[in-house]
Amino acid sequence: MKTLSKLLAPLSSQAFFEDYWTQKVYLQKGDPKRYDALFNWESFNQLLDEHLYHLSFPDIRMVHDGNLISEDNITEFIPSRRFGKIKKISAEKINKLSQQGATLVLDAVNKISPGLRLFASQLSSEFGDKVQINTYCSWKGRQAFDVHFDLQEAFILQIEGSKNWEVYENLGTEFPIKNDHDKSIDAEVKPSVKCTLHKGDLLYIPRGFWHSALAQDEPSLHITVGVYCKTKIDFIKWVANEVLTKQEKFRKNIPLSSAENRKTHPEESLAGILDDIKKSLSPEVVNKFNAYCLEENGLIKNFSFPSSVVDEPIPNQESSFYRLPSQRVLVNDLEEEEGVKIFYGNKELIFRGKVEKIVNGIFSNESFTGTDVLAFDEDFDWEDIEPILSLLLREQVIYLKN
Fold first, then answer.
1. What is the DSSP string of 44-105?
2. Is the pLDDT of residue 12 over 80?
3. Which fold has domain 2-228?
């Protein structure tokens, strides 16, 4: 976990997971220049200048003293030669509302910032779950949101300025999910953690921990790195939708709940249904769920023209290839014959034959040449290797260096 370890240093990732993850708040004071290369005022302004026309509510929104500003108050209709008038975010309104103290929120900024996209993809690869980065721009003495909790594990990185945080531990529902709503907390309850984040500091807040934040005597810019972990409920729902619905026995009616029916149809009782569900959880089902998680997390590189479209021969054995550093790949043996199945994002590739050494060699290296691949298994020649590399190129699992 290189990226996470660097983010948490000097605390080790192992110590973090043992002592803090999902359990308690972690505060880390950092060098003020720590995040300068990752994000800053200049890069934030550049993103707004370059992407404002293509952003839409609520991915970009404004909040004032705990109240969400309506879409109409941050948009305007502008002329379009093709569509007459279209609704777009108004730079003028954003600036005016900011001058009045409203906080500007930009969700999923990792989708439009190359640096944050790489950062989020690397963390997603290490956590094995979706990572989304949101940006919050606040002004002196202003609090955007009332006390609330989030449904994701949250790492707050203070990019510019300073902000006071109050966190309440062990209040309400533990490990809340989508339908668990915020409720007001007693005004007499005191926060268990009070701290001020300055430029370069980090704060980890577990899912479900109530919190609030207030900008201090200068403008504040922070990013929240949210880790959206799959829960056991997510797994159960996925199994129901993707596995059980395809089996006739689970589509049958549950026997009427009279005592007589339960006696005459014991195999169809609720306990019997649970037994059938357990029997359906084969290793293949688990592999498919893991592949689904890969697909959910998304890819960092979606295009590699022309090699992803045109079947061109690889120039020679000295051609150089690379894999993405954030790439997560599952490689499983085929069950009924020799070969392997590869899960990558939403892709599923099958290679038949004694290819384990070749495939494992490719996915053990971030960069390699055709000659390197030949060395992974001396029983293969270039005519055997080239089709494997060509398919991986076409499916954008590996990439050809220019």
1. HHHHHHHHGGG--TTTEEEEETTEEPPGGGTEEEEEETTTEEEEEE-HHHHHHHHHTTPEEE
2. yes
3. Jelly Rolls (2.60.120)
Q: How far apart are CA 127 and CA 200, in angstroms?
A: 23
Cα atoms found within 13 Å of the Cα of residue 34, Cβ hemisphere only: 19
Spell out the alpha helix ranges (H) of 335-376: 356-362, 370-376
- CA dihedral (142, 199, 326, 111) positive or negative: positive
Percent of the chain with pLDDT over 70: 92
- Residue 249's contacts (CB-CB under 8 Å, 6 or more residues apart) are 276
Q: Write the CATH number of the domain with boundaries 320-400.
A: 3.90.930.60
Euclidean distance between CA atoms 348 and 140, whole angstroms = 51
What would the pLDDT profile of 270-288 be if each residue is shown by its tens digit?
Answer: 778 888 898 889 888 888 8
- Region of residue 244 (phi > 0: left; psi between -120 and 50: alpha; otherwise: beta): alpha
Distance CA 347, CA 291 (A): 8
The answer to whether the bond into 58 is cis (omega within 30° of 0) is yes
Domain boundaries, the chain: 2-228, 232-281, 320-400
At residue 346, φ and ψ (nearest 5 deg) are -95, 15
pTM of the model: 0.84
Q: Which residue in 268, 265, 236 sits closest to 251, CA to CA? A: 268
Whether residue 380 contacts residue 358, with contact meaning beta carbons closer than 8 Å, is answered with yes
- How open is the CA angle 249-255-259, to the nearest 5 degrees? 145
Q: What is the pLDDT of residues 118-137, one digit of tens each?
A: 899 889 988 989 999 999 99
Q: Residue 194 has what pLDDT?
A: 95
* Amino acid at position 129, single letter: D
